[in-house]
Every structure is written in structure tokens, then in C-alpha cells.
């Protein structure tokens, strides 16, 4: 009897200790990202998920007719221009980064599952496309990885200055953090473009331009009637028949959407050539001049 009573006392003490440990542990709100409220967590999740729902609906809607395709593409372009013209502090949502990811994923899936199914693209052409796409993904991945590393180890949040900050530090209103050698913030990639990751950003844009140019040309010359431009280079000529079949129309509108991205990428590269590449290469030119003048 004494042994059983002692066992019951031990079990009671163990249960009380367990309850005390549970009461002292962190709540789920303490470990959730983007704030401690449930509503904030749902809002951020919806911002990240919405592009994966909106974009395919817009592409499917565009397949109905040529006029609807033009209206939808103009609507998407005006939306992108509006976002770029807004004050930077309002563009902190992950919606824009998710839009970039969803655009790349959907265009890739339509190309691989829709356009390739028509059996007019050779394995070599598909290999070149995949190689360009892999290079694009690699450089943009490196861009974000370097940006995350630099911001995590070299700066401090808010307006508090870290000892490693230099005179050319800049307060990013989107990241809400002091940044060294900052060029600009890309809302479409959700990171700051700094001197350490700028070369990856430019390389990613160059390969993205090549991937979009090559992929859209392959897609349009497959679903449309092509003509020979020069040698083995084909260009689309007549695309009026694509709206009679849903599969062809979906491939066609995704290529038109890719051409829109191609235009934006070209404008971004032009801006780099005129503004940021001279700024990036200025220290190197100064070193060369100092060496020559010694």
C-alpha cells in the first residue's frame, strides 16, 4: 500500500511539472513570422498565394478572343506601372515576389507540357532553353542569397546604426533597414540590390532576356504559322487560328505574356547600362586612374 501511494504521489508531481512546463512555453503567436496576430499571418499568406490564383485565371480569360487578350495584357501592364509609381514604403507585400515566381512557373509549365506536346521543337532546342532557364535561376538565387547574407550580417534593423555601416549607407524604406552600398530595392525579387550582389542581378537579367526571347520565339513559331527570317531562324507570321483550340490559345497567350516580360527586362537592362553599371564600375576606374597617375 505504501508503494502504491508513493507511486500515485510521483505521478501527481510529474503531471504538475508537465503543466508548469506547458504554461511557461512560448505561444504559437510568439513564433509565427510577420507579427504575432493571427490576422496578420493570414494576410501575409494570402498576399503570397494570390498571384498563383490570379495569374492562371487571367491567362485562361485571355484565351477567349484576340480583343480580350489585348485588354488583359494592357491591364497587367498598367498594374505593373502603377506599382512602380507608388511610394516605396507601400510595396512591402510579398505579393510582387510571388507574382514573379508564379509567372516563371506557369510559363515554364505551359512550355514543357503544352508547346512541347505539339512535337515541333527538337530535343536540342529544348536543352538550350532549359540551360538558359537554369542559368537565370542560378544567378537570381545567388542575388537573393548574397543580399540576405549581407543584410543579416552587416546591418541593423530600424534606424539604429551598426558599427560596420559606412558613410554611403542608405535606409531602405521597404526592408526598414540600413544598407551599405545600396543601388536600389527590387520589389519583384523582394531584396535590396547591393554592390556585392549587383553582378548577379545583371547576369540574371541578361539570361532572363535570352530565355524569354528564345522561349517565346519557339512557342510562337510552334502554335502560329512561321516564316523563314534567315537561315534556320523562324518568326511567327499568322496566328489567327490559335483561338479555335483552347490548348493552342493558352500557349499563345502565355507567349504574349512572355513578350511583355521581355520588354520589361529590356527596359531594366537599358536602365542598368545608363545609370547603375557606370556607378558600379566607378571604383574600379578610380583604382586604374590612381595607378596610372602614380
Question: How would you characterize the overall build of this protein?
Answer:
This protein has 294 residues and is mainly alpha-helical. The chain has eight helices and six strands. It has a two-stranded antiparallel ribbon. It has a two-stranded antiparallel ribbon with strand order 3-4. The protein has a two-stranded antiparallel sheet with strand order 5-6. Strand 5 (225-230) and strand 6 (233-238) form a beta hairpin. The longest helix is centred in the last third of the chain and has 48 residues, at 246-293. 24% of the residues are buried. Residues 1-5, 18-43 and 155-167 have low confidence and may be disordered.
How large is the count of helical segments?
8
Tell me the total number of β-strands: 6
Strand order of the largest sheet: 1-2
- Helical content stands at 55-70%
> Topology as H/E string?
HHHHHHEEEEHEEH
Please give the radius of gyration in angstroms. 26 Å
Overall 3D form: globular
Distance between the termini: 97 Å
Low-confidence stretches: 1-5, 18-43, 155-167
Major β-sheet annotation = 2 strands, antiparallel
Amino acid at each position: 500500500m505504501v508503494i502504491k501511494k508513493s507511486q500515485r504521489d510521483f505521478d501527481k508531481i510529474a503531471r504538475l511539472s508537465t503543466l508548469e512546463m506547458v504554461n511557461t512555453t512560448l505561444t504559437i503567436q510568439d513564433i509565427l513570422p510577420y507579427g504575432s496576430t493571427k490576422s496578420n499571418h493570414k494576410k501575409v499568406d494570402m498576399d503570397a498565394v494570390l498571384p498563383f490564383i490570379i495569374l492562371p485565371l487571367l491567362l485562361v480569360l485571355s484565351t477567349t478572343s484576340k480583343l480580350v487578350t489585348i485588354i488583359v495584357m494592357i491591364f497587367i501592364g498598367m498594374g505593373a506601372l502603377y506599382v512602380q509609381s507608388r511610394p516605396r514604403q507601400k510595396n512591402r507585400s510579398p505579393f510582387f515576389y510571388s507574382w514573379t515566381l508564379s509567372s516563371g512557373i506557369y510559363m515554364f509549365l505551359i512550355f514543357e507540357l503544352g508547346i512541347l506536346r505539339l512535337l515541333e521543337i527538337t530535343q536540342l532546342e529544348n536543352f538550350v532553353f532549359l540551360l538558359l532557364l537554369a542559368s537565370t535561376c542560378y544567378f537570381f538565387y545567388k542575388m537573393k542569397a548574397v543580399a540576405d547574407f549581407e543584410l543579416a550580417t552587416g546591418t541593423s534593423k530600424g534606424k539604429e546604426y551598426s558599427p560596420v555601416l559606412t558613410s554611403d549607407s542608405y535606409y531602405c524604406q521597404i526592408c526598414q533597414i540600413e544598407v551599405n552600398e545600396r543601388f536600389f530595392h527590387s520589389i519583384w525579387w523582394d531584396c535590396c540590390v547591393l554592390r556585392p550582389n549587383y553582378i548577379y542581378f545583371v547576369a540574371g537579367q541578361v539570361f532572363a532576356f535570352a530565355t524569354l526571347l528564345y522561349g517565346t520565339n519557339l512557342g510562337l513559331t510552334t502554335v502560329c504559322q512561321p516564316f523563314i527570317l534567315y537561315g534556320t531562324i523562324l518568326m511567327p507570321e499568322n496566328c489567327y487560328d490559335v483561338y479555335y483550340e483552347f490548348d493552342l490559345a493558352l500557349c499563345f497567350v502565355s507567349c504574349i505574356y512572355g513578350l511583355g516580360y521581355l520588354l520589361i527586362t529590356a527596359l531594366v537592362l537599358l536602365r542598368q547600362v545608363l545609370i547603375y553599371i557606370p556607378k558600379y564600375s566607378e571604383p574600379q576606374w578610380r583604382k586604374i586612374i590612381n595607378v596610372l597617375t602614380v
